[in-house]
Amino acid sequence: MTASGLGVLIDEGLSFDTDDEAKGDSTVNMSSQEWKGVVERSVALMDMVLKDVLILDAGVSEFEDKVFAGVEEDPELSIHVEDASGVNKPGVLARRLLSLLQTGIPEHVAATKRIVDENGRPSRLVRYWLPAGVLLLSSTTILRILVHRKQEILNWIADLGATMKDFWFNWVVEPTRKVIGTIRHDSNSEIAIMSKDSLKADRESLERMVVDFAVEKPDFATEGGKLTDAQIEDIRAKVKAGDVTPVLRAYEKDLRKPFYGAVRGDLIRSLLIQVQKTKVDLEVAIGGIDSLLKSQELVFGFIGLTPGILVSIGMFQYLRSIAGGRKGRGRHQRAGKSIRVLRNIDRIFSEATPSQNNLLSYKDHGLLISEVHVLRKIAHGLMPGEIEKEFLEDLDDMANVKGIQIQVRALERIRWAYAKWLQ
């Protein structure tokens, strides 16, 4: 009903029937009697709307018919008053308008508040009497528990503080220190799964084993007799490359007579040398993995630091929201409310029944004006100054009665042009 009254006032009040293109000429050419009649009818319209808008028993159509009929039959209109000179007309109209401002509107506001109090949200006493009563009845029990478990509560608080301290130093400060050490190439911060000189020592040991074996058993190394220094260096180079051919030849020969080779000792010796060779190969593979880990040491440092940072940020945001940091959250909530208002406006256009002139009805137009007003208040401050100015222009295009198609296009323009700030 209120929306219908608002639509009637906006569409019919002070309606001089002027087009935007010829507003100046039409206003000048309009006769004095015509615009005086428009002002009189507008004041009478406001009076009738304020009187009947809060009568909830009647329907919208009945309300509109009653308002227009009351305006036509208003006894204070010029057409119903016999005053040829028209001297008293401005005074009568001024007194009526003053009465509306001083009495009609305040009484309407008070009556609206009474209706809202009777039919709107209950008072806080009605909403919270049950939990307040339960809290009051259980207050003695709660106090008794707090007194009897005072030491336990203090211990819980102390443990909580110690846990927070350990978390901060062990999961934030220490990983950060390690990351900084990695960036500076600190030797103490290097990742390693094998000692630095382990591979070198085992490889040198393997070289000595193979060289000694080849010197003692030159038949397996060369076809000649005693080994020369050049041949020994060649064997060393091959061992560094992973070639232990003399040992393998002896091993192959002793496998033909394993018992004899075991008694003589060559088979066991070749087996032990191969064990050392396997150990060196394994350390070479581990060294490759070790090099890979060192190349990604900074990545692993940040991975270790990430959980502590994320938990700290989450706790900081939570405490900030509790401590009153509602600005960002309020901004997000306002953007969410603006989306709901746009949804309501879309429903108004979808369910509207246009008139023959392709215009909204009084009720739909009143609802649209109300939603636009709410959207204007919500969106204030969400956008930069120039963007907000353009946004208000588009809101005016959507609210003005220019045809439903034009208003729907304005709504679509608002949705895609300002989606960045209304999400």
UniProtKB/TrEMBL annotation:
**ATP-binding is among the record's keywords:** no
What InterPro entries does this protein's entry cite?
Answer: NCA2-like
Q: How does it sit in the membrane?
A: Multi-pass membrane protein
Q: Which UniProt keywords apply?
A: Membrane, Mitochondrion, Transmembrane, Transmembrane helix
Asked whether the keyword Membrane is assigned, the reply is yes
Cellular component aspect of the GO annotation:
mitochondrial outer membrane
Q: Which domain of life is it from?
A: Eukaryota
Q: Where in the cell is it found?
A: Mitochondrion membrane
Q: What is this protein called?
A: Putative atp synthase regulation protein nca2 protein
Q: Which organism is it from?
A: Phaeoacremonium minimum (strain UCR-PA7) (Esca disease fungus)
